[in-house]
Amino acid sequence: MACFAELGLSSWLVEQCRQLGLKQPTPVQVGCIPAILEGRDCLGCAKTGSGKTAAFVLPILQKLSEDPYGIFCLVLTPTRELAYQIAEQFRVLGKPLGLKDCIIVGGMDMVAQALELSRKPHVVIATPGRLADHLRSSSTFSIKKIRFLVLDEADRLLEQGCTDFTADLEAILEAVPAQRQTLLFSATLTDTLRELQGLATNQPFFWEAQAPVRTVEQLDQRYLLVPEKVKDAYLVHLIQGLQDEHEDWSIIIFTNTCKTCQILCMMLRKFSFPTVALHSMMKQKERFAALAKFKSSIYRILIATDVASRGLDIPTVQVVINHNTPGLPKIYIHRVGRTARAGRQGMAITLVTQYDIHLVHAIEEQIKKKLDEFSVEEAEVLQILTQVNVVRRECEIKLEATNFDEKKEINKRKQLILEGKDPDLEAKRKAELAKIRRKNRRFKEKVQQTLQRQAASRGCPPKAQPRSHAAPPTQGPA
Ligand SMILES: Nc1ncnc2c1ncn2[C@@H]1O[C@H](COP(=O)(O)OP(=O)(O)OP(=O)(O)O)[C@@H](O)[C@H]1O
To answer: Which region ranges are annotated with the description Disordered (predicted)?
Structure first.
């Protein structure tokens, strides 16, 4: 395996790596750094926690040291917390350069950001929405001369998920020069490869880690079949077990909505688990504070929505629990990638209800690996069931009293207005879409029932279970 110096990096950068404890480059670094130094665009696809950040930070710093000016590089990332993490890597590795960086993310003071931008930092790390706002409203800075454009978690930036970056990305792409080096990185690039290739046209170099499985080897991946109604009792039982078994334990729990995240956080605290929440309904300062408390192990459990599923690098995390089975395999890959990073061991446990078995199949097909069953003593779960349900209900009532839903609705409307959309029209469109989906689902169910009836009348055995180990969930103690 090559060493950092053999990749063409200058001695001061090699020394920085050594000081940081990076002894040998990882495969994605070996693959991408020389191509970037040659001046080529680069698309780097490698597993979670495999060192993709340094794969672009190191060559950019080298080029910056040869021709320092501001603004030299723009890095775009989907989440605010990730922007701070990337900035830290630039700062640490670029220390000898006296690197000036600037973080432009939503939820922070815009005037202070505008001032910082006008001081021509070498590197700007931004979320697309806030940077586009600055471009629309200010003429005190320019990204017309940037040498590097980086899209970290590039597939997320390009897909139209719950936060749609397309319009903001368009505004940004109009403001950057055509002559630039574009670097795109993610653990799941291949799904949006065609769109991404349109962005990187300068002798693009595509690097993908060759591996039979798309998740890391050191990750023990489990599923736990739970009846929907008793999910939270299983969760409490799981955490209790992990806490009893491990001295220095640290867990991230992923939920599907901000509200569930908030309720579960309140509930786990009632059970005296040191828990902090991270979701987009929190103020930015609270988000940073929560993350800092978790990183410093003051709190052992971080309960989060997918705002924390990409990129966050917290080496102490040993376990990831998916409170809901992710609807998309790619979300699963990023969530479970918050543990077992940089060669460490880790475990991911996905709670699977009777309605989610097909999602597990889709995940297994994508990652090219079967999940193993995680077994628990059902009798022990039964013992805490009533208590957990009562506490959860109390937390729900408490949260309702804070008008959480109303605040969420107002935030949503604000966001739509900012995106130039009519909130009422959007609501109507959504309701129509939901109606169509319901109709489709009913139709599918009817077809299924007819097929089963026909099979039964022909005397065929009922259709086999989709997977050998995914037996129907046990009749839980509901
Ligand atoms: N050459 C190296 N040797 C050892 N550790 C490294 C090396 N390069 C990076 N690391 C460490 O590996 C960890 C993961 O790196 P990084 O956050 O860049 O992963 P990633 O590939 O971007 O993951 P994700 O897809 O989840 O964003 C970091 O703590 C980083 O400091």
So the answer is: 443-478
336 lines ligand 1 (CB under 6 A): no
Ligand 1 centroid – CA 268 distance (Å): 31
Minimal CA–CA distance to 388: which of 400, 377, 396, 399?
Answer: 396
Per-residue pLDDT averaged across 349-373, rounded?
Answer: 95
Number of residues that make up the chain: 478
Calpha distance 334→26 (Å, rounded): 19
Pocket flag, ligand 1, residue 78 (CB < 6 Å): no
CA–CA distances in Å: residue 1 to residues 6, 9, 206: 10, 15, 20
What pLDDT is stored for residue 469 in this prediction? Answer: 35
pLDDT at 70: 86
Nearest CA to ligand 1 atom 25: 48
d(CA 269, CA 281): 19
Give pLDDT tens digits for 305-356: 999 999 999 999 999 999 999 999 999 999 999 999 999 999 999 999 989 9
To test ligand 1's pocket by mutation, which of 4, 53, 190 has the most ligand atoms within 8 angstroms of CB? 53
The answer for 213, left when phi > 0, alpha when psi is -120 to 50, beta otherwise, is beta
With a 6 Å cutoff on the Cβ, whether 282 touches ligand 1 is: no
